[in-house]
Amino acid sequence: MRANRRYGDDDPQEARLASFAARLTAHGCRASAGQVSRWESGQVMVPHRVVSGYERALGLPDKSLVGVVDALLRQATAHLAPSSLDRRVDPDDRAVHARAEDLLDRALGDGTMSGSDWDDLTILLCALKNVVMPTRLWGELATRLLAEQLVADGGAWRLRGEATHRLLWHPRSRPHVIAACAAVVRDPRCPIVIEPLAILDLATEPSVAALLLSQLTDPVDERAVRGALLASISKVRQRQFTADQLGRVAGIVVELLGDPRLHAAARPLAGELVGHLPPALRDRSVRRLRRTFDADLDLAGAVTEQRTAGADRSHRMVQRIVGRAVSSMPGYTDATPDEMLARLVDEMLFSTNLDVRLHAAQLAGATPFREPLAGAVCAELRRPPVIRDAVRACAILETLPFIATRRHRQLVETMLLAPGLDGATSSAAAWTISHIPGHSAPAFWSAALDRYRRTWLRHRSAHSRETLRGLTYALGIAGDTATLAAVRAHPDMPADSRHAAQWWAALPSVIRRSARL
Q1: What's the mean pLDDT in 471-489?
Q2: Which domain of life is it from (predicted)?
Q3: How far is residue 490's CA from residue 353's CA, in Å, rounded to a whole number?
Q4: DSSP-based three-state secondary structure for 287
Q5: Phi first, then psi: what are they for 351, rounded to 5°?
Q6: Does residue 8 surpass a pLDDT of 90?
Q7: Residue 467 neighbours by CB under 8 Å, 6+ apart
Q8: Which residue among 123, 267, 399, 424 has its CA within the 20 to 30 Å range from the CA of 221?
Q9: Over residues 406-431, mean pLDDT
Q10: Which pLDDT band, with edges at 50, 70 and 90, does 415 fall under?
Q11: What residues pair up with 307 in beta bridges, in sequence order?
């Protein structure tokens, strides 16, 4: 909020506390300069009306800040709840009931639903008392919302993500959200498995722990391992595994970290999980991994500090990125960068935890620093030492969907076609390009698919297979039905890529149409 006020207007006078307070008041949010200062410094909780008022006063899209704040508050509190931003819904208001009924009719029929609609509907369902609805319809509601979330991006994805977590909180819909996530994970056609597993990190039901263990011991694919590790970190921290399950998790993670084939993006997650084990189990696991840690000091740091690089190395990169981003800000005259920017960049690139990195990227992407920061991060991605460091390159790529603009898409295309790219980095790039603004030319899709198909035929490597699956998902997001049909029919494509193309073909048009909104 502070960054948007200070840097979101061409006229610096309008950014002054008193001027902005007057602007907020003019947009229906009564405020004083002192209140603005206290809200932005975190001295007092910011209510929903104020976050919404900032959007109106700054000319930002509706719920663009609200969605980010909802997500950050959920992460900070680490528990399921309707929303820490209280909308002050009156459950006795007839208009509230009418709005909920209209949204339910659309969501349970073939009506188009936007991210904002899902936000409203789930807020209302959580606020209303004694919602009477057949069990089957709760299941249909959860299934549709999850289906849209898996193929949405940007603000449309963010609002659906928070809506899904509200349904996961609601006692009537919770079992249906869990069942929908489990069904997606076990569907061999569905290309998305990290997200439905990560959604369940705060759910305490025994079936969730069983699902996570199944994806650690017998995963449907490499990405399922990452999703299960990510959700298991929360389970371990909250002591939601039984003693027997904890022992199994510890043994599995030790085996994973001892396997050189483990995906580069999964290693920091596995290291962090070891660090959160109960002391006796953690010490035993660390002893078993001593040789692995001696050969990889960064991995040892993942266990003790939940970071993927030492302070000296990370500080240098963060300072380069922040300096470049600040110098690129239009009309920027303040010699001191926003104090939170360096911290956000550090979390984006060096936290072991994917959730922490993505929340930091969301927050940065909701400020005027977004495009300059994307340019600075992409400049790092062009440096040979960074591109050779698969952990670092993957971390950068995973943040780009939240900060990149159309002009940054070409870099990811170039990386995917460049010779000698590490397999883990190529698969991260393939999944990343799905959610970077803009469109790729048919020539790119043809060249990328041909390159990794040939690599798959020669080496049958997990990375080439995963890259092809990511490219297939990206084709679906792009709406390229012709190329998807070609993937589906090509006998030399890996089975999971052909299955993913089939999944896209079977996706109802109302899901795809709604997910864009």
Answers
A1: 97
A2: Bacteria
A3: 37
A4: helix
A5: -75, 145
A6: no
A7: 416, 423, 426, 427, 429, 430, 452
A8: 399
A9: 97
A10: very high
A11: 351
Other C-beta atoms lying within 10 Å of the C-beta of residue 2: 17
| 506 — pLDDT class (breaks 50, 70, 90) | very high
Burial level of 509, CB count in 10 A (0-12/13-18/19+)? Answer: exposed
d(CA 1, CA 222): 38
- The reported pLDDT for the residue numbered 328 is 84
**How do the residues of the chain divide into helix, strand and coil, expressed in percent and rounded to 5?**
70, 0, 25
Six token digits for residue 136: 């089957």
Which helix (H) or strand (E) element contains residue 452?
Answer: helix 442-459
How far is it, in rounded angstroms, from Cα 135 to Cα 140?
9
Indicate the residue type of 94.
R
Domain range annotation of the chain: 2-60, 441-517
d(CA 231, CA 248): 15
**Distance separating alpha carbons of residues 478 and 7, to the nearest angstrom:** 33
Quote the distance between the C-alpha of residue 219 and its chain's center. 21
> Contact, 363 vs 356, CB < 8 A?
no
Select from 233, 156, 146, 139 the least CA-distant residue to 190.
146
Q: Which residue has the tokens 């940054």?
A: 408
How does pLDDT run across 52-70, given as a tens digit for each residue?
999 999 999 999 999 999 9
Query: What pLDDT sits at residue 335?
Result: 47
Q: Which residues pair with 351 in a beta bridge?
A: 307
pLDDT bucket at 334, cuts 50 / 70 / 90: low
Provide the b/e sequence for 482-501 (b: ≥16 CB within 10 Å): ebbebbbeeeebbebbbbbb
Average pLDDT over every residue of 354-363: 96
> What size, in residues, is the chain?
517
